[in-house]
Sequence to fold (251 residues):
Amino acid sequence: MTTSIGSGSPRTVIVTGGSRGLGAGIVQSFLDSGDRVATCSRSETQAVKEWETNPDYAGRFLFRAADIADREQSTQFVQAVIDEWGAIDVLVNNAGVARDGILALFTDEDSDTVIDLNLKATIHLTRQVVRNMLAHRSGRIVNISSIVGLTGYRGLTVYGATKAALDGFTRALARELGSRKITVNSVAPGYLKTEMSHGLDEAQLDQIVRRTPAGRLGDPDDIARAIQFLVDERNDWLTGQVLVVDGGLTC
Ligand SMILES: NC(=O)c1ccc[n+]([C@@H]2O[C@H](COP(=O)([O-])OP(=O)(O)OC[C@H]3O[C@@H](n4cnc5c(N)ncnc54)[C@H](OP(=O)(O)O)[C@@H]3O)[C@@H](O)[C@H]2O)c1
Fold:
């Protein structure tokens, strides 16, 4: 099994939940940097169809419809990437879900949906990928957490708990894998212009923008650039960190 990290040739990258929103921006960023990108989501979008048919991406874009909260589908997705390209160089755990509502009125069903995807599915899929990275002794893992896991946000208790837990997962896994040349970091975005932030009303979004030193919500590109920095082959001494990318909101 050979790896592309350190060779200057295209890397094999997995981005979970790349069909829209932030994940789609991350997929595009790695396609633009000439890498091979595999992504999954439960449903196929127009963006996925365009990547699949774009001749510039022939042989270096792979999509599978998969619900990664279903362990069998998650395992099959990772195996499909390994069957196609062998060594996995980069994993971006992006797929996530938010359910809002104050805790006293929150349902067990919503709790389970958020914990099952944001935490349990991420841990399961990462385990599959780590086994592959350990075999070729290199890799870069980036977990997309959130500033909500650091600061809290009224109505997002369970979501915030999963994101804080993901940062803990990052730190512990970085300790486990450091000696094997695998780095593990979190990126904690502020509020982005994606479907997920549609849960916030106009007044909440205005308040966030007013309190953000950079004076705007984030774009997927803002986050994708930070990820590219963390997975740069030269950044092998940068691990176990949570990089906050939020326009200064929490500074
Ligand atoms: N938006 C923000 O302001 C913000 C801020 C901080 C952090 N984040 C984090 O950034 C990440 C992306 O957020 P986003 O705003 O881009 O969300 P989004 O627009 O809702 O997109 C989520 C993506 O994940 C996929 N997905 C959802 N459930 C899945 C499942 N069970 N299996 C496989 N794929 C699944 C979705 O496709 P399907 O629905 O078709 O499966 C979609 O591609 C999340 O981890 C989120 O917590 C977002």
In short: Strands lie at 12-16, 36-41, 61-65, 90-93, 139-144, 182-189, 242-245. Residues 49 and 76 are 21 Å apart (CA to CA).
